[in-house]
Structures are given as C-alpha cells and as structure tokens.
Amino acid sequence: MEINKSSRHQKIIGDFGEHLICNLLSRSGFEVTIINHTGIDLIAYHKSTQQRLGISVKSRTRAAGTEDDSVNIFSNNGNNNDRQKVLDACKAFACEPWIAIYVETTKYAEVYITSIDNYDNKYRGKQGKAVDGWKMNADYRNKYEVDVFVKHIRLDFFSTNWTW
Question: Are 63 and 106 in contact (CB under 8 A)?
C-alpha cells in the first residue's frame, strides 16, 4: 500500500501506536491505560506477575526505501533528556521503565517492546550520544528476533481495492 501522509499523520500514527500496544498488552493479560504524562505514554500492570510497566511508545511510518532507518527513542541534549524523563515518571508511578516501538512500512509493520535495561545492556551502544536509536536494519531485526527479552510482532499488510 502506497504511503501518502496527511498533514496530521504524525499525531494519528502516534495515537495508533499507543492504542495498538495497549491492545497487544491487554490481550496478554495486562491491565493497561494511556496516560498523558511527561516521559511515559502507557502504564501496564500484569496481576499474575505483579509487573508494573511504564512505557514510552515511539511510532513511525517509513516510506519505500527508508524501512531500515533507525527510530530515535531518546534525545539526550541538555535539558531535553528524554531518558531521564522516562526514568523520573517510572519512579513516580513505581513502574519498570520500558520502551515500545511501532514502525509501519508499505508492506508490513513491526512492534517491539523491551525494558530500558535490556535496551541499555544489548542495543544502546556508546553513551553520550545526542540521540539513542532503535536500529531497524536486518542485522538488528535478527538480533531482536532471538532475544527473549524483546517482545516482537510483525503485521503484514494485504490490501485489495485500496487506491484513491
């Protein structure tokens, strides 16, 4: 399906990503809600495991040829320290800090959910960079797929008669 973004697409894809993550977590036994708080977008609680997650959701649409572009997840510039905002919000709500990434392309979408600890230990790379990213190239997608601490779902798009 061709991608031709509307003027409100960034807001729409952001909301969609949050709702999709809520749905997937709810289907997995979590009580989950969208919150409007600096640093985190969702709070999810799993009664049987007693896990309480504070989740920052990043949603992106990638046109053909940009599918492997990284997703910026944390800006670390001066007073705009997104990582610290997530950690502070999670401390205030007694949550484990997690990140969720939703990336859609013309043919498929990928959903990844992992703890910030797992991201830091395996994927963050050199600290002190202006931006921390979630790499989307084939090598990293293969690494995520075999990492039991990275939850992953791929959604394939199949369309018929969807042209305007």
Answer: yes
Q: How far apart are CA 162 and CA 25, in angstroms?
A: 29
Read off the pLDDT of residues 79-102 as tens digits, 9 standing for 90 and up. Answer: 779 999 999 999 999 999 999 999
| CA pair distance 164, 159, nearest whole angstrom | 13
DSSP 115: E
Question: What's the half-sphere exposure (Cβ side, CA atoms, 13 Å) at 130?
Answer: 1
Q: What CATH architecture is 9-61+75-156?
A: 3-Layer(aba) Sandwich (3.40)
User: And the tokens for 107?
Assistant: 């043919």
- Listed by start position, the domains of the chain span 9-61+75-156
Task: Give the strand pairing for 71-77 and 51-61.
Answer: unpaired
